[in-house]
Amino acid sequence: MKKESLLNYLYRFFDIIVLLFIVFDFGYDFEDNYDSLHIVGLILLSVGLLAFNTFKFFNYSFKSNKKVVLINMILLVILLVICGIIWLLNSSFPAYYILQKIKPVLEGGLIFYFLLRLMVFVRYIYDIYFNPAIVFVGSFMILVLIGSFLLMLPSATTNGISYTNALFTATSAVCVTGLTVVDTAVDFTIVGQSIIIVLIQLGGIGILTFTSFFAFFFRGSSSFKEGLNTRDFIANDGLKDVFRAALNVVIFTLGVELVGALFIYSSIIDNPAIENDFYFSIFHSVSAFCNAGFSIIPGGMLNETIFFNYYLQWIIMLMIILGGLGHNIVFNFFYYLKTYVVELFKKKIVHKKIRIITVNTKIVIYTTLLLLVGGFVFLFISEYNNTLLEHNTVFGKITAASFNAVSPRTAGFNAVDYEKMNVPSLLFVIFLMWIGGSPASTAGGIKTSTFALATLNIFAVARGKSRIQIFGRRISSESTSRAFAILCISLITIGVSIMAVLIFEPKGTPLLTVAFECFSAYSTVGLSLNFTQTLSEPSKLVLILCMFIGRIGMLNLMVGLLRRLNHQFYEYPKENILIN
User: How many Cβ atoms from other residues are within 10 Å of residue 273's Cβ?
Assistant: First the structure.
């Protein structure tokens, strides 16, 4: 056991060496990074890691540990074999030229190796601290801090960046918000943009989900504590299939993003203003599905080269809706279609009257459709003689109105200058931002199910009923209480944020502008009335906190801090409180 403990300490030492190499390689744009000696150092590091992992493989006693080390060994062997093949294919060229070809492969392989080691470290955190809510909140906090330091690296930005701006950008990316105090397309290099998109991906579906994915994929099992942590984030009912569910979530997310990237690529392939079509497609596919709203083209969707690209806008809209619905809803609906098709073609199967579409799925889909259709109709009428005049065709007006109805539901892509919108339209957009997307999705806001339950409870009280009944089911009182708690906490948080920003900003700052910004931050939307980049330093800190609370949920944090495991097996006498 002492021998294994020593090996673990050595393992972490090698992890630090790999991290330093990666930071030095990407973060500091020295000419020495491109000389032969530096690349030889990367090769030697890879060989050293392979040798150490081989030594660990033969000295570890636990089978699960051996499996993880074996995966590391396979990765490093593949990495070195690819480098060898590149060397053989270019053997007629000078060694300096060949090393330049090998360098990107080594960098990519070592980054992936470090990510695997990071997942192992997160799993170690599960074992030493048990509180799912705190672990969930802590994972986001650590990710934000790491991202902020990475964005401070010299090669991440074109002209440097203050730590407050780096922290704001990292928080906005991890919380999939999209508010930016600097221009992502102009002020960040491709290294900085790559850091941002990784933060968006990890924040969108959760580092806990990724950790469980790797644990299940490489080990075939995970700890009970890890199951509790992951279950809460992916909204899985039980522990039995939580890791397989995490596996499905990651595969579904990456699959949808890949397909979305291909469609985006087909829509901008003839656009000369976009230098790297492939990178643009990947970035915007991830950003759209994760409802982040970041863009690497100046002006975002308002850029004149894509402003009238309606095909691209419909692709972005579909990605936003899929990400905002959540994997639970998509999987449930897919299972329903699968069962329907199987029963349609196999007549021998006995048709059982079993509910496949859950009440949760019905509530989310109906509420989503109501908000999308209602938002489109309202904004089409309200903005027909205003911002929609920029579009000459009926299809263009329909597309613009549809995009304006979809994007406020926590996506943050702006295909219109919101400063030019009518006040009624802005108020309706704030309403859409506040509701947001669906639970267990990449979207923010109070969620569609929360809004639906609160509305249904109002009608139930008006009719003199003590509980909500819908679709032949009775909604639990716990769900209703949680919905109203979330609703109240959101309004309190947003209200405090608005007052704080008004205090820190110059006198005369419009209330509507500040309210729009705070609703956007809390609901992790990313839309703005061109106010974000003018914020003072204290106001930036207020919005950072607002974005973080909006993403993790204040209720989750309070549950983690205040909940106690001991149960009370008694009740106090009931007392009625006079209301209204």
Answer: 11
Per-residue tokens: 366: 């109906």
Neighbour tally for 577: CB within 10 Å: 4
DSSP 5-71: HHHHHHHHHHHHHHHHHHHHHHH---GGGGSHHHHHHHHHHHHHHHHHHHHHHHH---HHHHHHHHH
Run of H or E including 548: helix 537-552
Is the distance from CB of 197 to CB of 286 less than 8 angstroms? yes
**In the beta sheet, which residues pair with residue 188?**
157
Task: For residue 188, report the phi and psi dihedrals to the nearest 5 degrees.
Answer: -110, 140
| Cβ-based neighbours of 371, under 8 Å, separated by 6 or more | 405, 409, 432, 435, 448
Q: Partners of 473 in the beta sheet?
A: 470
Closest CA to 322 of 273, 388, 249: 249
Q: Is the dihedral of CA 49, 51, 53, 56 positive or negative?
A: negative
Tell me the two tokens of residue 254: 């990456």
Asked if 180 contacts 533 with a C-beta cutoff of 8 angstroms, the reply is yes
**Amino acid occupying residue 137:** V
What 3-state DSSP class applies to 470? strand
Helices 190-205 and 132-151, packing angle to 10 deg: 170
In angstroms, the CA 91 to CA 96 distance is: 11
Place of tokens 């960040």: 188
Three-state secondary structure call for residue 428: helix
Note whether 229 and 208 are within 8 A (CB): yes
The two structure tokens encoding residue 44: 């030697």
CB-based contact 295:301 (threshold 8 Å): yes
Q: How far apart are CA 444 and CA 408, in angstroms?
A: 10
Alpha carbons 168 and 540: distance in angstroms, whole number: 7
**Among the listed residues 175, 139, 132, 248, the one whose alpha carbon sits nearest the alpha carbon of residue 443:** 175
Tens place of pLDDT per residue across the chain (580 aa)? 444 455 555 655 666 666 666 666 655 554 444 556 667 777 777 787 777 778 777 776 666 567 777 777 888 888 888 888 888 888 787 777 777 777 777 777 777 777 677 666 666 665 565 566 666 777 788 888 888 888 888 878 888 888 889 999 999 998 888 888 888 888 888 888 888 998 898 888 765 565 455 444 444 444 444 444 444 444 445 444 555 666 777 788 888 899 999 999 998 888 888 888 888 999 999 999 988 889 888 888 888 888 888 999 999 999 998 888 877 788 778 877 877 777 777 666 555 556 677 788 888 889 999 999 999 999 999 999 888 888 889 999 999 999 999 998 878 888 888 988 999 999 999 999 999 888 877 788 888 888 888 888 888 888 878 777 777 777 777 778 888 888 888 899 999 999 999 999 888 889 999 999 999 999 889 888 888 888 889 999 999 999 988 887 766 666 555 555 455 566 777 776 766 6
In order of 75, 108, 279, 569, 572, the CA distances from 79 in angstroms are 6, 9, 23, 60, 66
- Report the sign of the C-alpha dihedral through residues 21, 23, 27, 28, in that order: negative
